[in-house]
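Sequence only, no structure available. Ideas?
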Amino acid sequence: MHPYHMNRKDRQINDPNELQRLLRNGKYAVIALCRNNEPYIVTLSYGYDQTNNALYFHTSRKGLKLDFIRDNPSVCATVIEDRGYQPGQCSHLYSSLVVWGTMTVLEDLDEKKLALNMLFRQLETDPEPIRQRNIPSDKAYDACTWLRLDIQHITGKSGQ
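Reply:
I predicted one. Tokens follow.
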């Protein structure tokens, strides 16, 4: 996808460190999918892997989102840091990201483990009890589907 110009250049986030901070601090992404001119949108919690410039997700083994991804792995996502509406000012404080990339269904066990670690790092303060309860063996990684969104382009905008 070719980058689209932002109408409000004064609100554009150009600092790569700020873009990464927003990805590190976010908890969920809204994912837009499309196949055969049919749109679908879904919200998923994620883990951000800065080293590989990717977002990791887990989901059920079957479902509409997987059908869409298999038909068209090109996705767009948004992550929002909502700092609240400002009453009496007709203004909202926020930072938002739009991420374009390709979604891959993971098959490799080591990458599934990486995905889980990224999710835990993003979402949990003490992941070990959850890991012990839900991942008693490597076979448990097959109980759900693991996804990786490889980030190809990202834009950010802030309303201060």
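The chain is about 25% helix and 45% strand.
Hope that gets you unstuck.
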